[in-house]
Amino acid sequence: MSPYPQDPFAWTGAALEDRRDAGLLRTLRPRPADSPLLDLAGNDYLGLSRHPEVTGAAAEAARRWGAGSGGSRLVTGSTELHAELEAELAAFCGFEAALVFSSGYAANLAAVTALSGHDGLIVSDAGNHASLIDGCRLSRARTAVAAHADPEAVRKELAARTGEGPALAVTDSVFSVDGDAAPLAALAAACRATGAGLLIDDAHGLGVLGDGGRGAPHAAGLAGDRGTVVTVTLSKALGSQGGAVLGPAPVIAHLLNTARTFIFDTGLAPAAVGGALAALRLLRREPERPARVRAVATGLYERLTAAGLEAARPDAAVVSVRAPSPEAAVGWAADCRASGVVAGCFRPPSVPDGISRLRLTARADLTEDQLTKAAGTVIATAPAARP
Ligand code: PMP
């Protein structure tokens, strides 16, 4: 083969250099199976991803149904296991029906695009997750970005709507960067008053909030609400992989018929379905796990703020701690890691408000000793504590 006279992708190298110069280069850090590090950056909130019942069910599902689902859901990729998970997930969270997707990301793209239209209006919270934002873009609906956690701003945008298309308000239930909760009941009231639908991404609420971990919409009295649709991920509290949309049966049937990330995507792998189903059954049997993860988050917050660090009281499992500058945040996270604790680091441009922070996540299986070590490490390495 003749060499290219000119490398058509040379510009990617230049773009990478720019990123490196700005201190923003992202790289992968493969985790060994037996890492000695204490993980406060992942989303395995209930500590179920390595629970023997969950891993055993995942392995058994792969043996019984195959390593992959073998096709898209509407062709050959739907197993009886998928149907079981959909029925149990819907019943647990209090909704009529559910549809499983290959990720929470795909579930969000599906829900936003299928429940809006090019002639419609979407009102989206300024702090929403990237997958909801991408859903808005793909929908080709007019999207109004409302001030963060401001139901009155959402009501005004919805009330001022012109045109005949569907209206939809979209929000995370628990915002992924700061871990603060959305005012769901007030948002639902704003939607009801203006005839709009409400789409709630409960990725960080399922298994953490609500009675026995039934999620933030359940806690807000919205379970079974005809105007509410909920998306969840199977990859956080349920320790597996995949996503789902929950809501009234006709809405779910509409998604099955129209959502491109459902129709043109291979069905979720049986191991992931089996793992999520086992985790859901464990959660039903051990309803104290959600209370424990919330207590760990509060314990972490209390230790950090008692030491003078600036953190917001967590509404769920995420504890966000302010750093004085982007460089300080990066150095802080690196020092935590060197001391055996993995913390998330968020800084501009990944955060819309320009505030850098460490993002710590609580886990139900963290022991008191581990909690003390984690908090002690974050405090000891804090930028303000340096000479
Ligand atoms: N929504 C939110 C709020 C999330 O934090 C995430 C995961 N980071 C997703 C959706 C996407 O879920 P998944 O990882 O299952 O694709």
Automatic annotation (TrEMBL):
Chemical reaction(s) catalysed: 6-carboxyhexanoyl-[ACP] + L-alanine + H(+) = (8S)-8-amino-7-oxononanoate + holo-[ACP] + CO2
Sections of the chain in a coiled coil: none
Record flagged with keyword Glycoprotein: no
Keywords, in A-Z order: Biotin biosynthesis, Pyridoxal phosphate, Transferase
Swiss-Prot/TrEMBL cofactor(s): pyridoxal 5'-phosphate
Database matches in InterPro entries: Aminotrans_II_pyridoxalP_BS, Aminotransferase_I/II_large, AON_synthase_class-II, PyrdxlP-dep_Trfase, PyrdxlP-dep_Trfase_major, PyrdxlP-dep_Trfase_small
A Pfam cross-reference name: Aminotran_1_2
EC number(s) per entry: 2.3.1.47
Pathway(s) where this gene product acts: Cofactor biosynthesis; biotin biosynthesis
Domain Aminotransferase class I/classII large: 37-376
Signal peptide coordinates: none
Main enzyme class: transferase
Family named by the database record: Belongs to the class-II pyridoxal-phosphate-dependent aminotransferase family. BioF subfamily.
Assembly: Homodimer.
Official protein name in the record: 8-amino-7-oxononanoate synthase
Protein species of origin: Streptomyces albiaxialis
